[in-house]
Amino acid sequence: MLEAQEIMAILPHRYPMLLVDRVLESTPGVSAVAIKNVSVNEAIFQGHFPGNPIFPGVLQIEALAQTGAIALLQEPELAGQTVFLGGIRKAKFRKMVRPGDTLRLEVTLTRRAQGIGSGVGRAFVGEELACMAELVFAIQ
Q1: SS3 for 40?
Q2: Pairing assessment for the beta strands 128-139 and 116-125 based on DSSP bridges
Q3: Which pLDDT belongs to residue 83?
Q4: Using CA atoms, how far apart are residues 30 and 52, in angstroms rounded to an integer?
Q5: Residue 131: CB atoms within 10 Å
Q6: Is 48 a catalytic residue?
Q7: Using CB atoms within 10 A as the burial measure, which of 50, 67, 111, 131 is most buried?
Q8: How far apart are CA 102 and CA 13, in angstroms?
Q9: Catalytic residue (one of 22, 48, 95, 112)
Q10: Is the pTM of this model over 0.90?
Q11: How do strand 83-93 and strand 128-139 relate by DSSP bridges?
Q12: Residue 125 pLDDT grade (very low, low, confident, very high; cuts 50, 70, 90)
């Protein structure tokens, strides 16, 4: 399990763009499971949408990408590098995510070669699938 300080030692992201609160499980270079607690106090809810707050799909994808980056950057040979979101394929959104929800972020890496990686990410609220996507990572 990784807490916030340990996550920040791996990822360069900081508030307001650090979207992983805790890593529950990780196998370096293979997979990671993390959580994002969605709080009504997040600035995004001032405009998305007033009176009907919904956590944007693009931020759900970013949270999945950060989870995948953690799995990649825990590999000793990649420590200290930066992982960028290089592409998104087959993204699907199944459930609205609202303040008070906890997103369970699951990413399984499927390939890595010459500075490029890929994986499949799924975000759940409880047992319900909120979103899923194939992700491409650029490692530098």
Answers
A1: coil
A2: antiparallel
A3: 97
A4: 37
A5: 22
A6: yes
A7: 67
A8: 20
A9: 48
A10: yes
A11: antiparallel
A12: very high
Q: Which two tokens stand for residue 100?
A: 């008070």
Q: How many C-beta atoms lie closer than 10 Å to residue 8's C-beta?
A: 15
Residue 40, both tokens:
């009504």
* 4-30: pLDDT as tens digits: 999 999 999 999 999 999 999 999 999
3 state DSSP class of 45: helix
Number of C-beta neighbours around residue 86 at 10 A: 15
Residue written as tokens 């996550």? 7
Structure tokens at 42: 């997040």
Q: To which residue do tokens 């607690």 refer?
A: 37
- Provide the token pair at 110: 């499927």
Taking all residues of the chain, what is their mean pLDDT, rounded to a whole number? 97
How far is residue 119's CA from residue 44's CA, in Å, rounded to a whole number?
A: 27
Residue 135 near residue 117, CB atoms below 8 Å: no
